[in-house]
Design a protein that fits this description.
It contains nine helices and four strands; from the N terminus they run E-H-E-H-H-H-H-H-H-H-E-E-H. It has a four-stranded mixed β-sheet with strand order 2-1-3-4, with helices on both faces. A hairpin with a 2-residue loop joins strand 3 and strand 4. About 35% of the residues are buried. Helix 1 packs parallel to helix 3 and helix 4 packs across helix 7. It is of the alpha+beta class and about 210 residues long.
Length: about 210
């Protein structure tokens, strides 16, 4: 049976943006399904010990800018390291993705457009008008998706995703989980590729 890889993400993450196309290509290569699961990154930080960007030491903030440029060049992706609308609240954008998944749709193209809107397009994904335009361009009924995204049921999906990510020790995003083994970061896709290629048993912390 083809494997399923849980894909934990949030719409505002530059690392999710940089790794999204590569993750999709890897899934096609191995015939696996990416189970898209938006999360509340702040909730994950409370458990992992990470802190928001503005609270990190200056040396780490500077190095992050180098890494962003490095991986943007490596992945061939346009990137503004200081976009006009970052930070911004990704909740509604994440919920639109949850709504699409819950309705049986494929959100992957739309997700790519949302990520690029922040990091290459200088758009504010906290605004409904921005998301409505991206949903329509991806072939979705924007009004229907946004209406579903605003429901408590959809909010509960992201909350459950967050709990599940914490349960498998996903420290941040993107995180790809294969057979319970987390691969945290778009820079771990090569290791996920190796695991899928070799069919090795999953590694455990204990």
């Amino acid at each position: 049976m083809p494997a399923t890889v849980d894909y934990f993400l949030t719409s505002i993450s530059p690392w999710t943006y940089l790794g999204h196309d590569a993750a999709r290509a890897l899934a096609v290569k191995h015939g696996v399904t990416l189970a898209v699961r938006p999360v509340d990154l702040g909730g994950m930080f409370k458990v992992s010990g990470q802190v928001p960007l503005a609270e990190r030491p200056a040396v780490r903030q500077r190095y992050r800018l180098i890494e962003l440029q490095r991986f943007a060049h490596y992945r061939g992706k346009p990137l503004n390291v200081r976009p006009a609308h970052f930070p911004t609240d990704p909740t509604l954008a994440d919920h639109t993705i949850c709504a699409i998944v819950a309705s049986g749709g494929d959100p992957l193209d739309y997700m790519g457009s949302v990520f690029a809107a922040v990091w290459a397009g200088e758009k504010n994904i906290a605004e409904e008008t921005t998301l409505a335009a991206l949903l329509s361009a991806a072939g979705f009924d924007a009004d229907a998706v946004l209406a579903k995204a605003r429901t408590p049921e959809t909010a509960a999906i992201r909350a459950r995703n967050t709990e599940d990510a914490i349960a498998v020790d996903a420290s941040g995003v993107p995180c790809f989980v294969l057979d319970g083994e987390p691969f945290w970061g778009q820079d771990r896709l090569d290791l996920l590729d190796h695991a899928l290629t070799t069919g090795r048993p999953p590694f455990r912390a204990s």
